[in-house]
């Protein structure tokens, strides 16, 4: 397929290379950040920069908006395409309907469920892609495009995708924050942060094998009030972390009551 | 070394096998749960059960208390050993001093920093062992014993071990709870829980490579009030999780202000 990319950030960076590798052709890249765009174009010998969002004169099958969530509506308002062109965004949290203003486009969502950074190579084959479209033909087309770069393609509507995004915030963003707190506590104690790695790995491995609520361990789940009090006291100087410790403990205990 | 085990739970189960494999001799096992003890003894052809905690007539170099935290003081109060016998507990959160009541013993801590279950095989070589003792000779002895079964041995005092345990509660117990919430949200949306696995793996991998606070992503860190409000509303029916979402968001934002 002939693909136009809008955006030259982390997602565009990984998608462009995967599309090219799969035999598709990235024909043009639009980005408000010219330096990022030109960096990306160095990896794409057949692609050209464009300064306009009028794509009506280009032979493009799919336009991929790989821009921040907050920028999608603005880009959609400016974008002009040939009737029948597929236009997708790549956001986990934004509805398909955000693209409805684009005249003549067949709209869809093409969401790679992964966290991207340019520095870190990723095997997109293992990344789940969630696709959505208004009509069956477009959905098929997007499913094929996704399957050409990934082995994990799912058709998921906007409502379920919203739930999934919320779940991802808990499992990834919030988990990263807890790992950050742990990292800081180790640092304060003069201990190497690598010390907890095997335990973290095992925790994640276990939570993939069993429902996590059923394998919950620790002072909260065994209602060990002495240890909990001692920990709260150790966090006296970090009231935000102390409050978080308390709420997480309460949530674990509420969960064990619910069982 | 000749080793006596007190306890026949998950930790004892893994330690006994590792000691035997490393050429040590587990000579006796004491446990209040006879069925667990006898199960463990089936793996240890040279060990015998004992019903008493008077070990003064046994040729034992090290007595390992692999019992729940709350049981350590009780066992220590009953235990009798030959003068000079090394006695250790295996707890991450309990101080060395808990063993001070044991007459004539050289006391120490022998803490495997991992979560154990009998069903799941573990390579102890990769598990960090934290050792502590009151005197240098005992510390050397425990370090050697630990090094015979693990490649990751650290000498850590009770104060640092307490900090480490608190860090582990955040990185593992609390993380598991967040994974449980995520698991439940996916289930509610009719989505397979495997969908988030690659993202979780990548989150953990990134947090091992970079300080987690520096690679924090998500609606909280980008101060995306619209998404945060939408998520809070989606959690309306689960007030405990809603509160947790709010506190975690606030903690992430407080952290980014602190930078």
TrEMBL record, chains A, B:
<dbReference type="Pfam" id="PF10728">
    <property type="entry name" value="DUF2520"/>
</dbReference>
<dbReference type="InterPro" id="IPR019665">
    <property type="entry name" value="OxRdtase/DH_put_Rossmann_dom"/>
</dbReference>
<dbReference type="InterPro" id="IPR018931">
    <property type="entry name" value="DUF2520"/>
</dbReference>
<dbReference type="InterPro" id="IPR008927">
    <property type="entry name" value="6-PGluconate_DH-like_C_sf"/>
</dbReference>
<protein>
    <submittedName>
        <fullName>DUF2520 domain-containing protein</fullName>
    </submittedName>
</protein>
<dbReference type="InterPro" id="IPR036291">
    <property type="entry name" value="NAD(P)-bd_dom_sf"/>
</dbReference>
<dbReference type="Pfam" id="PF10727">
    <property type="entry name" value="Rossmann-like"/>
</dbReference>
<feature type="domain" description="Putative oxidoreductase/dehydrogenase Rossmann-like">
    <location>
        <begin position="2"/>
        <end position="104"/>
    </location>
</feature>
<feature type="domain" description="DUF2520">
    <location>
        <begin position="127"/>
        <end position="252"/>
    </location>
</feature>
<dbReference type="InterPro" id="IPR037108">
    <property type="entry name" value="TM1727-like_C_sf"/>
</dbReference>
């Amino acid at each position: 397929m002939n693909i136009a990319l809008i955006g030259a950030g982390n997602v565009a960076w990984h998608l462009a290379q995967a599309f090219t590798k799969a035999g598709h052709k990235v024909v043009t890249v639009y980005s408000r950040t010219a330096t990022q765009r030109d960096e990306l174009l160095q990896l794409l010998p057949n692609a050209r920069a464009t300064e306009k969002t009028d794509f009506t004169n280009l032979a493009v099958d799919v336009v991929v908006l790989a821009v921040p969530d907050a920028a999608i509506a603005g880009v959609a308002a400016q974008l002009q395409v040939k009737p029948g062109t597929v236009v997708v965004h790549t956001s986990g949290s934004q509805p398909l309907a955000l693209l409805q203003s684009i005249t003549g486009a067949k709209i869809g969502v093409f969401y790679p469920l992964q966290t991207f950074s340019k520095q870190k190579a990723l095997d997109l084959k293992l990344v789940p892609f969630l696709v959505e479209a208004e009509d069956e033909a477009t959905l098929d087309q997007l499913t094929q495009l996704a399957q050409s770069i990934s082995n994990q393609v799912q058709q998921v509507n906007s409502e379920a995708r919203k739930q999934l995004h919320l779940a991802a915030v808990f499992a990834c963003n919030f988990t990263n924050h807890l790992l950050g707190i742990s990292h800081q506590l180790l640092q304060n104690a003069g201990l190497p942060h690598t010390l907890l790695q095997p335990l973290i790995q095992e925790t994640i491995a276990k939570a993939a094998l069993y429902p996590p609520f059923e394998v919950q361990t620790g002072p909260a789940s065994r209602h060990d009030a002495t240890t909990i009090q001692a920990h709260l006291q150790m966090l006296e100087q970090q009231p935000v972390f102390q409050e978080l410790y308390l709420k997480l403990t309460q949530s674990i205990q509420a969960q064990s009551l619910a069982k």
